[in-house]
Design a protein that fits this description.
The protein is of the alpha+beta class and 97 residues long. It has a single domain, classed as Orthogonal Bundle (Arc Repressor Mutant, subunit A), CATH 1.10.10.10. It has five helices and three strands. The chain has a three-stranded antiparallel β-sheet. Strand 2 and strand 3 form a beta hairpin.
Length: 97
């Protein structure tokens, strides 16, 4: 049983947690909420997208480009498994009293 290293990184875990609770969010929301640099956020997004955990949608609001993100079915499943694995790890150290 392995902890998913893509999700386990703190910034990516926070991104996944945010996306699991909403339909979708845009880049500016994540920058403001996570307090990451644009480059740092972009790199974490690339990792999550390449694992097919999130979907990136590019559009325009009028003439202004807008990038939004949403969690995929695979991302939802993997995040649930991640929490399950952590719970299992926590149980290993507990002994019955």
């Amino acid at each position: 049983m392995e902890i998913d290293k893509v999700i386990h990184e703190p910034a990516r875990l926070r991104i996944m947690m945010i996306l699991s609770g909403v339909e979708k969010v845009d880049f500016n929301f994540l920058i403001t909420t996570l307090k990451l640099t644009r480059g740092n956020l972009s790199r974490h997004i690339e990792k999550l997208e390449s694992a097919d955990y999130i979907k990136v949608e590019k559009s325009f609001k009028g003439k202004v480009p807008n990038t939004s993100y949403k969690i995929t079915q695979k991302g939802t499943k993997e995040l649930a498994q991640y929490w399950e694995h952590l719970d299992n790890v926590r149980q290993i150290g507990k002994t019955p009293k």
